[in-house]
Amino acid sequence: MITLSCLIMEAKMMYETIFARSFSRHEQKKLGYGAFAVCFFITFTIFTVLKPYLGPLPVLNLQLSTGGFKMLMVEDTTSTQQIVAEIGRKEMEALVCNIMDRRSDFCEMSGDVRVQGNSSTIFIASSAPVDMLPENSSWSIRPYARKGDARAMKHVRNFTVKMTTGRQHLPHCTQNHTVPAVLFSLGGYSGNHFHAFSDVLIPLYLTSRQFNGEVQFLVTSKSLRWIEKFRILLQELSRYPIIDIDREEGIHCFSSAIIGLKCHKELDIDPSKSPYSMKDFREFLRSSYSLKRATAIKVRDGDDTKKPRLLIIARKKTRSFTNDGKIAEMARSLGYEVIVAEANGTEISRFAELVNSCDVLMGVHGAGLTNIVFLPENAVLIQVVPLGGLEWVARYDFGLPAVDMKIRYIEYQIKEEESSLIEKYPHEHAVLRDPHSITKLGWLELKAVYLDKQNVKLDLNRFRNTLLQALQLLH
After folding, report:
1. 36 pLDDT exceeds 60?
2. Rounded Cα–Cα distance for residues 420 and 216 (Å)
3. Interatomic CA distance for residues 440 and 446, integer angstroms
4. Is the pLDDT of residue 157 over 90?
5. pLDDT by residue (tens digit) across 55-110?
6. Mean pLDDT of 332-359
């Protein structure tokens, strides 16, 4: 329309400036109509010829309406892409499936939703005629928030979301529910403490918090140990018993459901994509576990009555501090109250209280650092990065999320002489001289060498400045 208007105006201006003085008013009028017709014909021809070669516009909304059926097929913007299907009827059924997100696939639906656990199928009814349904009226969803990781996703059960025409083609309900449902998986890497939060708990909070507890959780790959570990958080998010959907032979019916979990990034929430933030999630944790401290201590010069508490995360199997006793002794000499504890050896509610009581948390890169979610605001995280070119994953997993949690972040990268790898490989070995040659072989090779076989013996003189820097941040 804009192009057509411009052409018309240009033609009119050309006509007025060149021909106006040469013809009578009646002849000018006839020529004007003729110019308009010529411009319209040329514009129409250009659009017709070039249409197949024109790229998509930044936002493309195509709607088809026939009776009660309305379908919004594609929405494409520079920031997000969604494949969307909407079914309109008196009860306003709807199906919205996002399969373009980098971290997870999920479908949101309302209307007549029926979940058949033994066939891994979720049905939603449409009032549209069969020939009006989209060509592909089913979506496959693996409800775990790490879809780009093939190793994780091969342990996640696949569910099919299927749109059918009319209730007569739906399986009969054996159990009706009065609240919405959220279906998610405890497969993948959820047994790892970091992945439990990054892949499940934070996405589950993002997806279900809006219901204020009035939601039913359907779990696939259920782990009783996992559920017991995080029972307090699960009960805060849902007031109803968890359904092990893998064992259900009947048909569970809901008025609305979300299949899969919304997820933004590692151990973090993007507030531009959600009404919630990491501040909200951390307040949720403090409330759930009755944590007392909202902010870290403020150190004042000359005040020896309040010592900042330093928690050293110990590890037994790998990436452990081989001189943690001397680290603790040095820290005490600088004015810290020091605690050394292993994250896996304590019930999570008790460990959350311990972390919340501290002002500085330090540890070698690993799942134990996930406990920064319990630190008070303005506390300090010291992440010790082992050899192996791991700076990128250290910052991505913990450095950037710490900033969004209002936690001050210090990164300490060890030198070769601080790594136990110097005792296992010759001085000129590629493991020490060229870590990139190992990491380019893939994550499994990197993990086997630099994460599974490496311990750390900190240079106390060098690390002393890091502890002093943390003290300065607490002033």
Report:
1. no
2. 49
3. 8
4. yes
5. 433 332 322 222 232 333 333 333 333 444 443 333 334 788 888 888 999 999 98
6. 93
Contact 453, 429 (CB under 8 A): no
Average pLDDT, the chain: 82
- Report the pLDDT averaged over residues 200-211: 97
3-state secondary structure of 63: strand
Write the CA distances from 473 to 80, 151, 356, 434, integer angstroms.
Answer: 38, 40, 18, 35
Task: Write the single-letter amino acid at 339.
Answer: I
Strands 216-220 and 138-141: unpaired
Burial of residue 245, with CB atoms counted within 10 A of its CB: 0-12 exposed, 13-18 middle, 19 or more buried: buried
Contact 31, 20 (CB under 8 A): no
Query: What are the strands of the beta sheet with 408-413, ordered from one edge?
Result: 337-342, 309-314, 360-364, 380-385, 408-413
- The pLDDT > 70 percentage for the chain reads 76
Number of Cβ within 10 Å of residue 286's Cβ equals 18
Residue 349: burial class (beta carbons within 10 Å; 0-12, 13-18, 19+): middle
Classify 424 as helix, strand or coil: coil
**30 three-class SS:** helix
* pLDDT score for 171: 84
Residue-wise DSSP of 362-398:
EEESSGGGGGGGGSPBT-EEEEEE-TTT-HHHHIIII
Instruction: Between 218 and 100, name the one with better pLDDT.
Output: 218
Are 219 and 245 in contact by the 8 Å Cβ rule? The answer is: yes
